[in-house]
Amino acid sequence: MSVQRAFWEHRTYPGDLSQLRQVRQDLATDLAGFPDDAVQTLVLCASELFANACKYTASGQENGQVLRTLCLRRGRLLRLGFTDDGGSGRVPQIPTERTATEWDEAEGQRGLLMVQELSTAWGYSLTCPWADLGTSTWALIPLPDGTTPPPRLKPYIFTR
Predict the structure, then answer these.
(1) What is the pLDDT of residue 64?
(2) Residue-number span of the structural domain to which 45 is assigned
(3) Are 3 and 153 in contact (CB under 8 A)?
């Protein structure tokens, strides 16, 4: 019988874009045995969510950190999350106040659109709503129909 729910040990990274390569490598390692398309989609979403955590929060400052969470839900949905250190007072959102020309010329803020298109759902929650102590963003990536989790998968996976 395959595992319907699994939790990977949380990973913490320095809040620096130079860590993006490590974030990607860790995801590929943690998800070995899962379908390549799902892993690649998750890695692409992770790149955007991690970059936002570094760029728009205190995580990108000296000693800032970003926490990664990963779990399998109902045996068919991978849930990826990143929690930042807070500090910006901003919440993740897709900009809506742009003309078509402004969207065509925009260099930034397209990442959440990509996450929205690649995931079943995405969202955020404030770690501590009464203080700016961080924001958790997440995305749900479905496994292809008929996929079963790797046989070695346990309900709780230690990553290090």
Answers:
(1) 84
(2) 6-157
(3) yes
